[in-house]
Specification:
The complex is a heterodimer.
Chain A (H helix, E strand, L loop, with lengths): L3 E3 H15 L3 E5 L3 H4 L1 H7 L4 E3 L4 H13 L3 E7 L7 H10 L5 E5 L17 H6 L5 E3 L4 H13 L4 E4 L4 E3 L14 E4 L4 E5 L3 H14 L4 E5 L2 E3 L3 H11 L2 E8 L4 H12 L4 E6 L9 H7 L4 H23 L1
Parallel strand pairs in A: 2-3, 2-4, 4-5, 5-7, 6-7, 10-11, 10-13, 13-14
Antiparallel strand pairs in A: 1-8, 6-12, 9-11
Helix pairs in contact in A: 1-3, 1-7, 4-5, 8-12, 9-10
Chain B lengths: L2 H25 L4 H5 L2 H11 L14 E4 L5 H11 L39 H14 L6 E6 L7 H11 L5 E7 L2 E2 L2 E2 H4 L5 H7 L3 E6 L3 H13 L5 E6 L22 H10 L6
Parallel strand pairs in B: 1-2, 2-3, 3-7, 6-7
Antiparallel strand pairs in B: 4-5
Helix pairs in contact in B: 1-3, 1-4, 1-10, 3-4, 3-9, 5-6
Classes of the chains: A alpha/beta, B alpha/beta.
């Protein structure tokens, strides 16, 4: 029976875990603590928790100031509201290199019933373009907890992207999160599926189904978006000759872009994106929306077929 | 304020003005008007109130200063030079490639600068974070933040204004350089911001309205800030943009403009300097 747990709960638990031994941790939330799970920390350590009110820009500035006094601040909101504080993240965090940790829950289509206004599909694009920003995108509860711990220990700005609803728990509980390292979850030679966050488990499901069709897909968990594990990506490209990326994010600016940029520079091969096709979401359940927009195992399988066709066409041309 | 102290601060302010004018003229770029209006404020802070050690600019016991109106950097750099953080000659590298004196203050490059600024409206939030951090650790460090008046049109300032009294940050003191002018014209013709006193009092701050070029008034207000136990202090300092140089005073033109040789000669003469 597959265990199901939300990654935002991992955040809540991880904060309690660190807080006990690390007195420098302080937590800020822009009035969403009952959803982001920072309220668990707030209940235990009220003197180290600040609800800044519905004021994300000020929250980031405050986090920067706190970091300058030696604190390890965790500034929290939904991924959709990261854009509200973009200049503050750029100037007060990235430009100065302040030791601020920014945690966003409800990434992608997660705020499903709330509708398109609340579905954060741009945050990876926004943050990737900030020098010195480390971007983590854990795939399940265990990895999320480890990512928070790793972020606290890391010196420098970190952004961590989490979901809302319960998700399959499939990674190793005690495996420490290695910032900048992708993990190969399945071996294959026909195509490499580079997935992140909520789509990693879907990628594994897709790979199993494809295997039954005689297609052997390599699956990588890209849990660090920036810095990208370039060696792992190029290795997969060389091994398989074509790639799929899968993310709950706009096709523009996130994992697909990061991987494409790298391939174009070093090893151009056919690549297809499983992502939102530069459009907004809408109201519905999370499952319905992911199915609607093809952000699931089926969407990944379809993309695999497409990219393998491209690969074969290219090879035909080469050998003509 | 004692006569001696007053005379000393007056002299220092004059020296700082000369330094910043020399620098801006030398490099032919910078914000003279915006820099000149803050000089008495910076002089009082750096030579009477701020605790710092030029031999240990990153000292943990130091007070923090934030120039939220970062374009006033020439005045900050001139003040830091006057205080001994950097050699006077280095001021001539203002805004030049590889200089520690970046166009807007950069904390990573210049010891003595605590916070990098430039994009308006962000300094007060950072000041709140600093003050809160010290409060949590029960440390005595104080935080001072100078804002522009046009800068107050940025909404983030008001997010900061709302939360600081709620957090009872009595060691935080903000000063508005109320020089009435912004890039494109007078603030009151563009987006009126008065009454600043009424606004900041309504937000719960301890407010003073003073002549920002009067050392006695600056001193009284800053002393009162030290006595606060519950609330942060906001000092609305009425100033003159371009103060000290007759042809720059109250002129929008001098917000961001190079100084030619003739203007430079006249400016320095007004500041009491015969030769360059």
């Amino acid at each position: 029976m597959m265990q199901m747990k939300p990654t935002r709960d991992a955040y809540g638990h991880a904060l309690l875990e660190i807080a006990a031994s690390e007195s420098r941790v302080v937590v800020l939330d822009a009035d969403l603590s009952r959803s982001t799970r920072t309220d668990w920390f707030a209940n235990e350590y009220p003197e180290r928790f600040i609800n800044v009110g519905i004021a994300e820009a000020n929250m980031i500035g405050m986090a920067a100031g706190l970091a300058m006094t030696g604190k390890i601040p965790f500034a929290t909101t939904y991924s959709i509201f990261i854009g509200r504080a973009f200049d503050q993240i750029r100037q007060s965090v990235s430009y100065m290199g302040t030791n601020v940790k920014i945690v966003a829950t409800h990434a992608g289509l997660a705020a499903s019933y709330d509708g398109g206004s609340h579905q954060g599909l741009e945050d990876l694009a926004l943050l990737r373009v900030l020098p010195g920003m480390t971007i983590l995108s854990p795939a399940d509860y265990h990895e999320a907890k480890q990512a928070i711990l790793a972020a606290a220990a890391h010196q420098g700005p970190v952004y961590i992207r989490l979901q809302k609803e319960e998700m399959p728990v499939f990674t190793e509980e005690s495996a420490a999160f290695q910032i900048g390292k992708a993990r190969t979850l399945m071996d294959g030679t026909d195509v490499a599926i580079l997935a992140t966050g909520s789509l990693v488990y879907e990628a594994i499901q897709a790979a199993h189904r494809l295997r039954e069709e005689g297609i052997f897909a390599e699956v990588l968990n890209i849990s660090t978006i920036k810095p990208l594990d370039e060696a792992a990506v190029l290795n997969a490209a060389q091994k398989c000759g074509c790639l799929i990326t899968a993310e709950e994010h706009n096709r523009i600016g996130g994992l697909y872009s990061a991987v494409s940029e790298l391939l174009a520079r070093h090893y151009p091969v056919p690549i297809e994106a499983v992502a939102m096709n530069d459009c907004y979401g809408e109201t519905g359940s999370w499952r319905q929306l992911r199915d609607q927009y093809g952000l699931n195992a089926e969407g990944i399988s379809t993309a695999v077929h497409t990219v393998i066709r491209h690969k074969n066409k290219q090879m035909e041309v080469t050998f003509r | 304020m004692e006569v001696m102290e007053h005379a000393q601060l007056t002299h220092l302010a004059n020296e700082i003005r000369k330094k910043l004018i020399r620098a801006i003229h030398h490099v032919q770029t910078g914000h003279p008007g915006s820099s000149l209006s803050t000089v008495e404020i910076l002089t009082t802070l750096y030579f009477k109130y701020l605790r710092y050690d030029t031999n240990n600019p990153h000292s943990a016991e130091r007070d923090y200063f934030i120039l939220s109106k970062g374009h006033g950097a020439p005045a900050l750099y001139a003040t830091l030079a006057q205080a001994g953080f950097l050699p006077e000659e280095e001021l001539f590298t203002l805004r030049q490639l590889h200089s520690r004196l970046q166009g807007h203050p950069n904390a990573a490059m210049l010891p003595g600068v605590d916070v990098s600024t430039g994009s308006l409206g962000q300094g007060l939030s950072i000041g709140i974070g600093l003050a809160l951090g010290f409060q949590l650790d029960r440390k005595p460090n104080r935080v001072y933040c100078v804002l522009g008046d046009g800068e107050l049109q940025e909404g983030q300032n008001w997010e900061a204004a709302m939360i600081a009294p709620a957090l009872r940050l009595n060691h935080l003191t903000a000063i508005i350089d109320r020089n009435q002018l912004q890039n494109d014209g007078p603030t009151e013709s563009i987006v009126p911001i008065d009454s600043l006193q009424a606004k900041w009092e309504a937000f719960g701050w301890n407010v003073h309205v003073i002549d920002g070029h009067d050392f006695d008034q600056l001193d009284d207000a800053l002393q009162d800030a030290l006595r606060q136990t519950e609330r942060p202090t906001m000092i609305v300092a009425n100033t003159i943009k371009g103060k000290g140089i007759s042809f720059m005073e109250n002129q929008v033109h001098w917000h961001h403009h190079p100084i030619n040789d003739e203007q430079f000669a006249q400016a320095m003469a007004e500041l009491g300097e015969v030769n360059r």
